[in-house]
Design brief:
The protein is mainly alpha-helical. The chain is built from four helices and no strands.
Length: 87
Amino acid sequence: EDSIYEELDELLDEMGQTKQTFYETFTRTVLRERCIPFIISVPLSQTENRKLEAFKRLEAYRKNLTELLDYEKEREEAMIEKYGDLG
């Protein structure tokens, strides 16, 4: 079905791949691993937009900062926020 190949072309283009490099990489990996060992995905554009907006907010915040950041403290607080207090 032509639409499937067109969709594959678009997806591979987003990944910076051609069908030729995709098939070569896939074939070599399958032969070496004796299985299909990987998943390739394209980030959803909504996810990318959220990441970009978050980065822009962070950059604006950084530019307005007048004091030095304690990166270790910021990292620890981010880990606690994401995973809870583990210690």
